[in-house]
Write a structure and sequence with these properties.
FAD/NAD(P)-binding domain, alpha+beta, 15 helices, flavoprotein, nucleotide-binding, Trp_halogen, nucleotide binding, Flavin-dep_Halogenase_NPB, binds flavin-adenine dinucleotide
Length: about 500
């Protein structure tokens, strides 16, 4: 059993990308008065420079920080995001939309999909997306805040500006920023009153200075300088399920109004993203190095973007997977230092937020307790494995025949958890969401049906409605969706008006 250590109050955050500054902002806002928080970052090393699409859960983080939405959007050139358009994922030429929010009305015993499936069998139902306000609004290029949160949304944001915005907040709450390169990570050689031999003691900077701390947050990106390199925590490689291991990214000038959704376009070698901001578009290719060479990737990307290039294409190598533990000794890895699934479905910023909130909940004020560490690692692993399954689903259920990559992912052995979900949906149309999972039923349904997985049957409760009643039920929902969207302004005009005072 661990003996409690003296109060921890010196926190050192290594790295100032999105992870470092999100962590600093939350910790300083909530615990700034009790803690001495320092953040080290190196302009020369820079950040990964991508990560610009988010999911609606970011509202929770912003609410905790007490942010003004319009001010945040103006500062980060953000736009609204209602979901993701998947183009060519099921098969070449076939698209679908994964929206935030819900589709239709559920019955207590069965989800809307069962009623829709019955309507489809009888030839009464329109496309599933017609019953979802976010999808209809996205395709009409419209957006506004509407009462009762009838449109669920997230943001596209400029990652560099977001880090600077959070830095301003954090410094306001007392975080001290230290510019410079970490040369070495020093460990305690013997037990002390507040640490054990092997715990991290300090960051040794290139200029010879030392930054000592009690708790270290590793936000050094893929380098994982503290958790991976220094403490030797190994990495679980998921590339058998997720074959993409490279990305090349570039920013282009906008040539059209920003649309309120991310585009994810499948290619024989992987896929491409387009993320529209107020002032520019973020673009990238995510690919398997077995299908496309690093030398060819930038040229391929250039052929698939619109508008003038604002920076030169930048290559990023990664291994999809996670560290065996994200909290070890007195070091917690947040962001890319702890793992990375793949950018599809934009979940990394969300995971940073989850880690940041979880660390606040389990903050080791009286010293590190192994039970807290275990709980943190358990919850973090569950989060990431759930997201992994959801992302693998997009690859696996496909009918593409144009490359070895798509054949491999269709034929590969799945994680048992995902195999079960697919079988349950295929046979019965049912999806269940364990309470702490990120993606809700409607996300799974949209992606499974979008990728071409249609259930063999629907729940018998749908038979309680005869054809006329079912038609009226479906039509009422469709008309309500149309009414919501008809009242919305153009997305770009709405963003400009909202941000104008800032
Ligand atoms: P980084 O941005 O790499 O920051 C690392 C920091 O550590 C930097 O400040 C660096 O200077 C510092 N550092 C490193 N070494 C040293 C040293 N020796 N001395 C001093 N400082 C040091 N997430 C999403 O949510 N949505 C997306 O759409 C999305 N798209 C992505 C696309 C790609 C291709 C990739 C690879 C990732 C994407 N992500 C996305 C993930 C997202 O980019 C990251 O989660 C996010 O940017 C956080 O990165 P980070 O702060 O962990 O690392």
């Amino acid at each position: 059993m661990n003996t409690p250590l003296k109060a921890f109050h010196r926190v050192v955050i290594a790295g100032g990308g999105t992870a470092g500054w999100m962590m600093a902002a939350l910790m300083s806002k909530l615990l700034g008065k009790q803690l001495d928080i320092r953040l080290v970052e190196s302009e020369e090393i820079g950040t990964v420079g991508v990560g610009e699409a988010t999911i609606p859960a970011l509202h929770t983080f912003h609410n905790l920080l007490g942010l003004n939405e319009a001010e945040f959007m103006a500062a980060t050139n953000a736009t609204f995001k209602l979901g993701i358009q998947f183009e060519g994922w099921k098969a070449i030429g076939e698209d679908y939309f994964h929206s935030f929010g819900s589709t239709g009305n559920d019955h207590w015993s069965a989800g809307f999909q069962h009623f829709w499936l019955k309507g489809r069998a009888l030839g009464l139902a329109r496309p599933y997306t017609d019953y979802n306000p976010e999808t209809v609004a996205a395709h009409a290029n419209r957006f506004a805040h509407v009462p009762n949160q009838a449109l669920n949304y997230a943001y596209h944001l400029d990652a560099g500006r977001y880090a600077r915005f959070l830095r301003g907040l954090s410094e306001g709450y007392g975080v001290q920023r230290i510019e410079g390169k970490i040369a070495r990570v020093l460990q305690h050689e013997t037990d002390t009153a507040t640490a054990r031999a092997g715990d991290i003691a300090a960051l040794q900077m290139m200029d010879g200075s030392r930054i000592e701390g009690d708790l270290f947050i590793d936000c050094t990106g893929f380098r994982s300088l503290l958790l991976g390199e220094t403490l030797g925590v190994g990495y679980e490689d998921w590339s058998d399920w997720l074959p993409c291991d490279r990305a090349v990214a570039v920013q282009t000038a906008s040539v059209r109004e920003a649309w309120p959704y991310t585009r994810s376009i499948a290619h024989p070698f992987g896929w491409q993203w387009r993320i529209p901001l107020q002032h520019r578009v973020g673009n990238g290719l995510v690919y398997s190095s077995k299908e496309l060479s690093d030398a060819d990737a930038p040229e391929v990307l250039k052929r698939h973007v619109e508008g003038e290039l604002l920076i030169q294409p930048r290559l990023i190598r990664f291994v999809p997977g996670q560290r065996h533990q994200v909290w070890q000794r007195n070091c917690v890895a947040v962001g890319l230092a702890g793992g990375f699934v793949e950018p599809l479905e934009s979940t990394s910023i969300h995971l940073i937020q989850r880690h940041a909130i979880r660390l606040m909940q389990l903050f080791p004020a009286g010293g590190i307790q192994q039970a807290d560490v275990d709980e943190f690692n358990l919850q973090s692993r569950r989060d990431l494995e759930h997201i992994r399954d959801f992302i693998v689903l997009h690859y696996h259920v496909n009918a593409r025949t144009d490359s070895a990559l798509w054949t491999h992912v269709r034929e590969m052995t799945l994680p048992p958890t995902l195999r079960h979900r697919i079988e349950l949906f295929r046979e019965t149309g049912r999806v269940f969401r364990p309470s702490d999972e990120l993606f809700a039923e409607n996300s799974w349904i949209q992606v499974m049906m979008g990728q071409g997985l249609m259930p063999a049957r629907y729940h018998p409760v749908a038979d309680l409605m005869g054809p006329d009643e079912l038609q009226r039920f479906l039509e009422d929902i469709r008309v309500r969706v149309q009414r919501i969207v008809a009242g919305l302004p153009a997305h770009q005009a709405y963003v400009e008006q909202l941000c104008a005072p800032f």
